[in-house]
Structures are given as C-alpha cells and as structure tokens.
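Worked Example 4.2. Consider the chain below.
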Amino acid sequence: MDPTPSSASPFDTVSGALGDYIPKGGARAAGERPLRRLSGTGGEAEGGEQILGVVSLGRDLRISGSNLDAAPFAGVTAAPGAAFADLLPPGDVPIVVKRLRRVLETGEAHVARVQRLRRDDGTELVVSMSILPAAPPLDGLTVSLIAMAKRLHLYASATAIGTSLDIGETAQSLAQSLLAWGEVAAVNLDYAVWTGEALTEQPQERIRLRRAALVPDRAWPEGYLTPGDNLPREASRLLAGAVMRDDVPQAVVLRDRAAIERVLDDPQLVRALVPGDRPVSVACIPLVVEGPEGLPRPIVLGVTEVWRRPDNLFRDGELLDLQELVAKTARHVDLARQHQREHAQVLALQRRLLPRAGSDTIEVASVYEPTTPDSAGVGGDWVNSFPLPGDRTALVVGDVVGHGLGAAAAMGQLSMEARALLSAGLGPGEVLERLDETVTLLDDTDAGLAAGYSALGSTCCIAVYDPVDHRLQISNAGHLPPVLVHPDGSAETVAGQPHPALGAEFVVREPFEVHEFTVPPGSLLVLYTDGLVEDPAASIDEGIGRLTGVVREVHPWDDLQQAARGVVAALAPTEPLRDDVTLLLARMAGRRSRDTATWHLPARDDTPARARSLTAPLLRRWHIGEQVRDNALLVISELVTNAVRFGTGPVTVRLVRAGSRLTCEVGDTGNGRPRPHQGDLLEDTGRGLHVVHKLTTRWGVRWTDTGKAVWAELEG
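Applying the procedure from the previous section yields the following structure tokens:
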C-alpha cells in the first residue's frame, strides 16, 4: 500500500473510505448531521470543535502513512513502518488488534469507539476511533482519530459508565473518561459507598475518603495515594470542605503547584495528593446526589481529581463538561452503592444459613461462593445441616428462583420453615409438601406478584441421616440429584422418581417420593446447586458426571473442608460468577453399636416392666449416674405405657448414648399425637407426659412410615 502523503486532507481520506457506507443519492437518516470539514489545525476550535487525524495501515497492521499534524495529537508519533499497536496502551492491544483484523476480514467498518493513545512522554490521549476499509484502489485500513471530541466523549462515557453495578469498575470507568480532560485522573469515594451504608447528612469532619481509582497505571512516587489507600483525615476534610462551600457543590480549580502547596499546607499531604514533582494544576469535582427527603443538603459520595500541566488552563466550558460527566456518574455510583448494600444483606443471610460444625456421627463441610457484585445480584441458593431429635441429622439444599432481596426473603422463609417442620418430626416428603404450599402462597397477588417477584419453580432436596440404623432418607423437589460416594470409592447419583419443582400447580400433582436406603460408615453425600455444574458448552448431565469424578477422589481421611474447596476449585468457572456456587459434603460415620440398643416388644400389659428390666442393666454398663438412671427408667415406663394403652401394634424401644446425653425413644404403629393431659388427683391416668416433661430436657414426637415415635432426652 502506498503511503498516504502527510499533506493529504484527513477529511478527503476518511470521506473516501466512508463512501461505501454513505446512503446513495446523498440521503441521510433523519436527524443525521452531514460529514463536514473541520476548521482549524493548530488547536482546539472554539466550543470544543472536533479535530480529525488519519492513520493508514497495511494488511500487516503496520503504519503506511499518517496525518496527525493538529496540536491535540502532539506527542503521538505514528512513524511509517511501525506497528499500530505501538500507539496503544499495552492493556488495549489485544482487543484493538482483534477489531482491526475483523474489519480486514469482513470489510465492515468499526465506527466511533472511545480509545486511548500513548504519547511519547508516557501520557495518554483519549480519542474517538473508527476503523474503516481503505478507499479503493488502496488495500488496507484507514483509522480515523477524532481528538478533543469532548461532547461525543461525554455522551459515550456517561453511557459506558452505567453498564456495571460494581463500585470499583464504575470508579475506574469514570477515571478513564476523565483522562480526556487531563493527564492524571483520580476518584475518591466515601466509606459509606464501599460498605453500602444508608446515606445520611454528613458533617464535614466525618467525611472519610478512600482512593477508588487512579489512571494511568504507572509506577508512582512513594507516599502517593493509590487505589485502596485511605486519604488522611486532613485531606478528606479539605476536599469535602472545598466542594461544599455555601452548601452548594462546586468545582475547585488550583491553577499551579504554588497554589496547591499553599492550600494543602503540609508536605506530607502534598506527597499524598500531588502526582509527582512536576508543575501541575488540578480541578476537583464533587460526586454528589440529592439527600433523602428531609435533608436539605446534597450528600457527598466522593471527589474526583483531574490533573494536567499548568500551561493548559481549565476553561469554563471544560469545567462545565467535567461537572456534567461527574453529575451523571454520581447516579451510577449511588446505584452501585445500593446494589452493594443489597448484595451485603443477602450475603449475610446466606452466610447465616451455612452449616455449622457436624457431630460425632456426621462431618459436614460447605463452600458458598456468591455471584460477582456486578451481576444480577446474589442468588437464592442455600444449604443447611442441623441436628434432629433422636440423634438424626438433616441435610437440606435449595435454589430459589431469581436474585436479590426478593429471592433472599423467599430463601430465608423456606429454609427456616424446612428446619422447623423437620424438627417437629415431619418426614422429608411431608416437609416438601408444606414448602410446595408455601411457595404457592408466596406467589399470590398480595405477597408475591405485587412485589414483582415469583418463587414458582424453586427447588429443594432434603436428606435425613439416622446414624443408629445407618439409614438415609432423601426426597427431592426438582433439584439436581445428590451424589453418594461409597467407602470403596465408587459413586452414584441418587435419582429417584422425577418430581417437579415447588409451586408447580400446572402439572399433575404426585406425592413427593422418599427414597430410603442403607449407607455404610464412611459414605460421602454430596449436595450442590446448579452453579457448580452448569457449563454453557456442555449438558447438565456432563457437569454432574464431572462432579462425580472429582468427589470420587476425596479420600476417607482427607480434611473435609479442604476437600470441599478443592472440588469447587476444580469445577467452578474461572470467569466472574453469574450464579451462586454452593456445595455441601457430608461424611457419615454412624453411631457405634456399643452406644445404642433397640428392642422390639409386643404391646402387652407387662411390656413396661419388660422394658425396664432390659434398660436397667444397660444403663449401669454405660455408667449412667443413679439419678439419671432412675429418671430414664421412669420416662421409659411412662412412654411404653402410653404406647401400649393408646397405640397399636408392636412397641419399639431405642436408647442412644451420645456423650452426656441419653435419648430414649418409643415407637408404635398408631398415628395419634400424644398430648399432656392434666387429670384429677384421684385419676390413675393423664399425668404421664407431665412426668416426662419434668424429668427431661426436651421431648417430642416424630412420624415414621409405620406410625409415630415419642422421644425424650436426658442430660447425665
């Protein structure tokens, strides 16, 4: 490709390249302004006129010619033969080169993107860059660069800054945009923005600022504040006071280094706030939003700084542009603050639901990784484990539809309801039936739809582990199947009869199936949510298969929490998470046979005496104290008597010793719920459960497949 003469008109070069993209006959879309030659080549025209430069590239993306004579391009050297990538900041090279090659391959122009160019002295120039196929007969590319296009840049920046709900990314985008007006830009935000605190009126002395963004990225002098550093209290007061004069947010301009040092009046503050030893000027523009109702003063979210050479003074028009950009950005910063607040609230709720330490019969470990703050919000994934009466343990995992506070509220309600119902003695299938009704109620017009949120389609899986019988019950409402790893290392998914998710009234309803089976000591149960196994490039079955392969490698004596983190590290996506990742591992050890006893007795009048005769020697072998032993014998006698008189079928007596706690459980085939009854003084019946209540720390009823079991706990 022949070099473009340096004297060639940039207007003519770009106009030729744009020929194929301008409607024939001179027609233009409604409101479209005609391409026109720009006046002035020696500097910025009055009113922020655009200055156009051109760089011609060969197919090897090397510069074949350029016309960057205008003053705004001073310091940008486009030498023939040099790679165009040499004009770019290193971090921008891959994406820009990709765009250049795409235009070469497709012939489709890439128009008007904000881009940075490197000057020879290391500073950067912000331009609007378009990539166009070269006008025939030339072969290659024409790159047009519009410098000092402040209004265009202002519009593009204000639009781009609002695309993220992450506070750090929003601040970084603002700082990058501010570089169009200077050589160094910094954004300092108040602590309340970082923590998501509610906005209140801020006394000047309480303003606390932290540096959120600083561009360009380079090696800065020692003592200069960089992102993550807290501004000294004196600097915070100074900046806050400067921008809140007369209760009105105002931009403040310090025109030279002498004025800056005079205002700061402290060498340490100068080192912290002034970028280097060169002559500089600075414009400070406040980030403010209107205060809540009842607060007359605006609230300071932070302060931006734009630094440049003192011989290039800030004009009134530039300050107005800066204030406009910062004012538009303040709204996005406040939205990010509110999102951060909601994110923190939901995360706190989910953290409280995470399982605590297990017991001597089951070891649990969990990992919860929330979505990234700039996603749709923390999801409704939850996992929990808690002890149940009778030495059992519940393991629950769920995924509530949606993100944010609506999903969090539904998640908290379902989680607490599941725990209450399981603790009250209902089985896993019965609990899911109640949760199904709850989800339907959450979605009625008053509670759900009026709030703009629906929990229909939420999923839940409940497992109950009995360490005495080494039995596991699992019931599933539309959730991904658990994975069970046997002590020999083999693994399988526990997939029972498919059942729809909670609240699915539009399908034929079937009872929730309860899958019950034996699990030998050392078995590992894996509960998880879809964020761990979903991959857009593969099916969900492949994801579950990968999970199964990874958990098979967990050795019986591996540290379980470390193993859980390893599983997540092996499976979770490396890019920012768009869905919660939740995992629970439960290693089931069971209760030792010498600490349990179970007897099956006929329902006869002499059965209470038979139960006492079997229990007494066992309690002595267990070295149970005399007082507790006598209380336990009386409790068992009363429970067995009730089972014989008011229940049906055979009676099952079970004793479990767990440390200093003794659990007595008596089961029968009846379905009546025992209730304390205050009988008359002369009656022989009606006071049994009152005796049980007085002698035990707690007691209750749980429902079984064959009837019920009344349990009671005593502390020895």
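The two ends are 94 Å apart (CA to CA). The first strand starts at residue 51 and ends at 57. Compare this with Example 4.1 before moving on.
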